Amino acid sequence: MNQQPPVPGKEPALAVSNLEIRIRGDHDTFTVVSDMALSVHPGETVCIVGESGCGKSITALSLLRLLPEAAHVEAGTVTINGEDFLSMDQRRVEDFRGEQIAMIFQEPLTALNPVLTIGEQIAESVRQHRQVSRRQARARAVETLQLVQMPDPERRSRQYPHQLSGGMRQRAMIALALACDPKIIVADEPTTALDVTIQAQILGLISDLQKRMGTALVLITHDLAVVAEVADRVVVMYSGRRVEEASVYDLFDNPVHPYTLGLMGAIPRSAGGQVGGRLVDITGTVPPLWDLPTGCAFAPRCPRADSRCHSEQPPYEEKRPGHFAACWEPDNG
Amino acid sequence: MADDPLLSVEDLEVHFPIRSGVLQRQVGVVKAVDGISFSIGRQETLSLVGESGCGKSTTGLALMGLIKPTGGRVRFEGQEIKSFSRPALKAYRRRMQIVFQDPFSSLNPRQRVRDAIRSALDIHQVGSRKQREDEVAQFMERVGLRPDQANNFPHQFSGGQRQRIGIARALALKPDIIVCDEPVSALDVSVQAQILNLLSDLQQELGVSFLFISHDLGVVEHISQRVAVMYLGKIVEIADKTSIFSEAIHPYTEMLLASEPTLDPRKRHTFSASYDDVPSAINKPTGCPFHTRCPLSTDQCRRDEPPLSSRQDGRLVACHHR
Fold this sequence. Notes:
The structure holds 2 protein chains of 2 kinds.
Chain A: E1 14-24, E2 29-40, E3 45-49, H1 56-63, E4 71-80, E5 83-84, H2 90-99, E6 101-104, H3 108-111, H4 118-129, H5 134-147, H6 153-156, H7 166-178, E7 184-188, H8 196-213, E8 216-221, H9 224-230, E9 233-238, E10 241-247, H10 248-253, H11 258-266, H12 307-311, E11 316-320, E12 323-326
Parallel strand pairs in A: 3-8, 3-9, 6-7, 7-8
Antiparallel strand pairs in A: 1-2, 1-4, 4-5, 9-10, 10-12, 11-12
Helix pairs in contact in A: 4-5, 4-7, 5-7, 7-8
Chain B: E1 7-20, E2 25-40, E3 45-49, H1 56-63, E4 71-76, E5 79-80, H2 86-93, E6 96-99, H3 113-123, H4 129-142, H5 159-171, E7 177-181, H6 189-206, E8 209-214, H7 217-223, E9 226-231, E10 234-240, H8 241-246, H9 251-259, H10 299-303, E11 309-310, E12 316-317
Parallel strand pairs in B: 3-8, 3-9, 6-7, 7-8
Antiparallel strand pairs in B: 1-2, 1-4, 4-5, 9-10, 10-12, 11-12
Helix pairs in contact in B: 3-4, 3-5, 4-5
């Protein structure tokens, strides 16, 4: 665990190193995430950004040991609060989830239980972790709903998920995640299903709460604009690997990896201004994970790829202080 | 041709009845589209932008005759499409086509791509069988697919490729106007860029017009010449792209633009976390539909609905105060 520059006097709340995740297919198994590392300090927001299939969501699930049955962690460690989370027994894992680390899912309608009221669901999680009466747990549920600025929290706590609007449901889910004051929150595309005005409210809420409570936040997204709004540090993933990592300012000022450059150029607004300007499109498509090229996974789509890119995997190394990338080109950008 | 817009829509209305109880009595009405007017010229892209439930997709479907409008007039090259009956629609649909949002559900999984693209040509009996086959190959190539993939089924293609199939199918009849209903919102950003570039190229080459329906302001800013902002079944502002993005007049347009995340970490917003929800089209607020969320709202807004009235530079805005 020596790949991140240590922040003086502070232990990371969450540290991941050498994480490798494999999935069982019909005939054999293949790797979906390899050599993943992450360290998040209290109060810090780290964004993992990438397109569908890059392994960002499965990484998020592995952080809570919620991987689907076909997937398993092949190697690596996840350290939460100084303890190895992956080798922990199931009972302690359940203690840790909610108290130490909690998750906000993309689609609240599928993540919330449709046959329990919002209040019951939050109270259930409180009683799982705290020695409190039912009444106290319900009171705590209303209090958390208040914290996420749910309108009329007393009444809403007695309603079912389908009775709430999309924005309210996402607030309820955030309340559920916050009910036991976790040190780390993992949010997987928390605003993707929402309209833009509601997205703004939820982003405002998340960063508000995080600042107030000093939570470490891992935010998974495909949207670089969301990254620019909330991140302190950014990890860009492609085909199951990190391709670039830097502070948010550094990444937007001087992106190093051609994939990051391509992603930024592909956003319509960046080409705005000039009428009918063409967007940078990254030609081709993401290679399937069971049939990755031998060299750099991005090489077949990369405008700068040479023969070495096609034959050898580039090392993930520090290109500038605090700015990591996996690219053969020595000084691009 | 210069005077008549290609397509003009006047007071288009799509109301759905709400029925309930054993007898299925009508208990209310959803005013999904509530009297909107706009026009589209040749080789022009007009975008309808708004949040979910504002009626933008319903507008697209109604113009295609896939949902029957309950009121208003639609004129194509000055000719009114009166009844939206089958024969009237058949002629009109040759000129107007649609690309749907979801490239997974809008293609028949059991139909080969060749047949999906050719079926429109078959229905309208364009040319001989051989000619149609050639056309299919031509259009596949034009949208960036290999003609030798014509015998494949939709599941053998990626999301972006499927959207290209949808576009080829819409192009097959050489329409004058294509309704694009959120054509890129299901796609990853790099693939989205490919499709947006393809659409601009096609417009340049074929002179086709687009009615582009989207919730994504970035995409809208990139692709359109004019923009109409919809809120709860009404157009609240309509203007050319540059003026709307440089200076919004309607408070709702302003709110939309202010909610859009920036791409510059140094210019972060301080988004307010406080709760503010969109009312639904079922129980629409009285007066101005936006008054419940509007910072400028007054008694007049609660009482009277503002008409869409013209401002300088030919902009149309529906607001009492701006």
